[in-house]
Amino acid sequence: MTRPLIAVPARFSATTSALRYAAEVNARALIEAVWRAGGEPATVHPADPAVTDVTGRLARFDGVLLPGGGDLAPHRYGAADTHDSVYDVDDLQDAFDLEVARRTLGLGLPLLAVCRGLQVVNVALGGTLEQDMGGPEREHRHVVHPVAVERGTLLERATGAQKVEASCYHHQRVERLGSGLAVAARAADGTVEALELPSTEGWFTAVQWHPEDTAHEDPAQQALFDALVGAARDGR
């Protein structure tokens, strides 16, 4: 059986010792999770959407995975100032990812968005972000914590659970929801941990955590990739 082709926008990296130069990369754990699910992951070059046809590029794929990465530039969601903690901002990356989010949803392609990917979708649909979540009591980096999943969501259907253990690495979170988005999961402190778009024609779930971190040992996390690839195979 032919594996559904899953587009994974690359992340720019300033240094990669084995390659000797700056590189475009994706996390191995993320790619392996797509492969285990039966998909064919394909890294996509983040070309300037002002001069390239993003819709045309995406049309050849069966699904899209928007991965984690650095922070979006705060001006992308209307912020006048930039918090000192904002890091690894890249204007080309931002422009490409935002256009990929808009076009993927518009095409109805199956879409799984992870960490930064969730934030990209929220901003693409007019939402805003809290630039830094603050002190240790709201720390969501280097931690695995429980997340409560809303009933009746695609997330619940995919994981088969109303609570999952989420591997988190983020210092920002959703502030104002983008147009049409609905919260699909929250952490105990109220942080939005998953989003869905009930009005979209295609399969779409976004999670603020990194399911690839534990997908090799946690069936609920691997199930997110299984659901993406399954929807891509079914043409939904």
TrEMBL record:
GO terms for cellular component: cytosol. GO terms for molecular function: gamma-glutamyl-gamma-aminobutyrate hydrolase activity. GO terms for biological process: polyamine catabolic process. The lineage of its organism: Bacteria, Bacillati, Actinomycetota, Actinomycetes, Kitasatosporales. This is Peptidase C26. PROSITE patterns: GATASE_TYPE_1. It comes from Streptomyces populi. InterPro entries: Class_I_gatase-like, Peptidase_C26, PuuD-like. It comes from the Bacteria.
